[in-house]
Batch of 4 targets.
Target 1
Amino acid sequence: MAEPLKDVYNKVFILDLADQVLSVYPDFCCTAFQDVIFDAEWDDKALKARIRTITNALHRFLPAPFEQSIVILEKIAHRFSGLEALFFPDFVEKYGLDHYQSSLQALEYFTRYSSAEFAVRPFILKYPEAMMAQMFIWSQSDNEHVRRLASEGCRPRLPWAFALSEFKQDPQPLFIILEQLKDDPSEYVRRSVANNLNDISKDHPAVVIKVAQRWLQQADNNDLDNNNNLGNNRQRLVKHACRGLLKQANPIILSLFGFHRPENIKIIAFKVDDVVMMGDKLLFSFTLSSQAALGKLRVEFAIDFMKKNGSLAGKIFQISESTITKNCKQISKQFDFKKISTRQYYPGLHHLSVIVNGRLLSKKVFFLQ
């Protein structure tokens, strides 16, 4: 079983962090720093709570002026990376909000080793016009991590972060950044653009549909200097951006990607386990059948899960996307009802449906116990 993410911040890591700070700031109190972090509540703290605990402890034992603390942290930031380095931008988020210029310089630096996508959001709220101008400047950076920050930091619905209500209501200020980055050479950056658009689609589907149509039309019209790689990258970006609309079976988006209504396709030999035990796997299989070639198909299954109050809540899962030249295809799948942190399972009657190109073609029931 995988270790919880929060355990990246363990005693070995904190000891190393203290030593790294001490190497550039000889007055640092390593023992007191560790004692403050490993309080009685440490073991129960989740990832973000542990990050904030480290942030607060650093603030307590570093020099009081924010700018001096940042200079010290900048000297050691390159020795850490990824998830473990999130406390660097978190320090700026917590203690730098009233130090705009020095904070932005620090965030631009720290995001190269981790990500400042969470830390920039309070600055967007407090300095909306200045920050969006800065985000556009970052979108032109030579560093892909900084360019990604320009898009990821202003996502209206960034996971693990508070929503940016202003952009949920009106996403137009975001598009100057997204247009700048849509053909970025880095997949890492383009993925962020797609995620931003997917966020927007949840509140403004019509806006994203128009953007998707326009961006794909540009690719089809050879507006990308006949560069097939750029065209393929654009296709992948737009499709990932529209993943929510595809799951919702939006007819315009389905048609845009060539998934037409499955008028002559049937589901035969649909078999589902009648009963599955909590923690076990549900097995099911079916055959897609047609008198002609099946063609381009997006095949999904949906499970209506029993909720605590006895109602059902559906979730869609993708099986495949492909062009099938034969007139039948047999599919076997399984769904694991093992315990996970992101979904609570409850015993009772569940529904399992097969969806082809956005259309529900067959449904069966099974019992989870």
Note: The chain has two domains: 5-256, 266-368.
Target 2
Amino acid sequence: MQPDEWQAVRFTLAACAGSTLLIAPFGLAIAWLLARPRWLGKSFVETIVTLPLVMPPVATGLILLKLLGRRGSLGGWLHRAFDFDIVFTWRAVVIAAAVMSFPLLVRSSRVGFQEVNRRYEQMARTLGAGEWRVFWTISLPLASRAIYGGVLLAFARAVGEFGATILLAGNIPGETQTLSLRIYEAVQLGHDATAYRLLLVCVCIAFAAVFSAEWLLRKKEVR
């Protein structure tokens, strides 16, 4: 593989790891809330969380571009107040991957929290444990396999992200060019050998992540 190809692979792995770390605390919090009995606004939150799964990635990218660009409400304020830009930087790659992979983390983690035996939580509360301690010592450990599976699925989805990324971050070699964008560029230029090499790398990464996630979920079912 050529140096620019390795650079795209390394950047993709780093950006996807960063996006997964970014969404983890928020995803777990929302998954835990959605696993609770019905509360006001739950259906609305569920719908918002699921939207990136069903909307075209390009449409999601356009929404992010309008929000985070220099003419957007948030992006414009960041640029004026702090001279801080998001669009067409590595930060845009991380954010696009985070938004697109967020639903997978939430959905998998939510299933894990829902399958926690409520009697254990009630017993802990009866013994004087507060909600925070119940979460860290009962709910989170018992749901850990589903959470780990969700993290791996989110990472795999981030690796394959294309539509939102190309709108929000562009395809700048050495700056925002991910593995998917490098494959797209190679196909456009007729560099089939490069495209197939990178395709193999992409398949290996995705296969390893999904296989590990399924293994964790199967182990959970056996237990």
Note: Residues 3-35 form the longest helix (33 residues).
Target 3
Amino acid sequence: HHFGEWCKENANKSGGLSIIGIKKLSSYKFPIPCPDNPEKSLAIQSEIVRILDKFTALTAELTAELTMRKKQYNYYRNQLLSFEEGAAPFYPLGQKEVGEFIRGGSFQKKDFTKSGVGCIHYGQIFTHYGTYANKTKTFVSESLAQKCRKAKTGNLVIATTSENDDDVCKAVAWLGTEDIAVSSDACIYRHNLTPKYVSYFFQTESFQSQKRQYITGTKVRRVNADNLAKILIPVPSQEEQTRIVDILDKFDLLTSSISQGLPREIELRQKQYEYYRDLLFSFPRPETASN
């Protein structure tokens, strides 16, 4: 930590790049415990390495566990939302009895305000939102919101454009109590299904494989609402939709939650590692310890 701060303070930032010359770098006073007693110094260094290696190994184990759980989650999501012929009817997403797509629009990032009416910008769907949300990251003024297309409770908000094929049509189920504004390059899906069920369906290989045939564009990839409406979704009973959601919610919490799941545990272990690393390297300054 101290070395990183020293580099920031002593780097030559001319020309937009931060550079430290060899001569300057060689002047850094590296902390060495008990410099007058080499045997004791090496023993202390070895113990510091042993302690920090344990933290590193624990974080690696948790990361491997998270990777395994994500694979397990993907497998069960695809299995639970795959129905054999006759087990559940399949309907186009845009069929009248199922749902309809409404294009977003009317605001940009520059229109964000500190408070007002909640809004979702299509770019935030990739960076901020997961399967569902009940709060928005940003707001627009009430006067602008009156001109915007809005998502209601239970609607999906879908990013219809992306720089890569996997992310295009990433969706978030809006579960908040208030209507929210939706930006251009996104659309709203109003439907008669269980909201999270539809959002989970948008993550399946079944949806992805159907979506690919409708992707257009070169640098910017997109799927328009008319083509989204053609994609087939299995529609079991409401009870079955709820059962599937309950199972997938547990996996989603474990693999995605920054407050309860494995990502939170990894974050805490990383902070713990950084705390003890800085503490273990906090030796007396050069006045009492040689470099």
Note: The longest strand covers residues 186-191.
Target 4
Amino acid sequence: MNEFFIGIDIQTKRDCCYAISDNNGDLKASGWFGDDHTIFFNLLKELSVNSKLYVGIDAPRMALISPRHWYWVGSKRKWRAKTQKDKGRGRHCEIVVSAHKLANPQWTPLYHEAPNWMLKGFALFEELGTFLPTFEVFPTASYSLLFGVKKVKVHIDFSACLPGPKDMMDAFVASVTVREFIRGEGIEVGNGDGLGSIVLPRPLPKPFLDEVLNWP
């Protein structure tokens, strides 16, 4: 059975973009969809009839249910309890990515505090998750882990790049990230708080911070 890997970059000032690539890294399709995503969803459903699809979305899977209670202290390699000065934002998966210096997360807040792009991401995870396996990706972290790695490739075209070239590039790498994870080349981190994990295209860099991988 064929496999396709869908990368989605969430936007609010313009439409969201997507890239679909196959096992060989060849681009099947790319484009944009707005609030009415019927055409895009129909494309995915059509592909899924005879193929296995995996979706990577560049957005938090869900909002915080309550302010987080634990903060990571990198200099001491240990957790500490939240203080009154702390806002309590961020999920375990974001903390792991930040602690390993892969990227600087936009810390996920409570639902009513979330910006529109996160709200759109929450909804898309829920809708797509009803018929396809979905994964949270973090393109900046993927760029960090793939720096210097030449064998991970995707063959692209530029037919849909004009509305937002950087956004489309993130969709390309989101597609690649899911592919590498499904192949067993990457890992997923977080979810100690039950709020979702982030999948990465390669293992965490050394030195591993084992303590941050385990939620208190």
Note: The beta strands are 2-9, 16-22, 27-33, 51-58, 70-73, 78-81, 134-136, 187-190, 197-200.
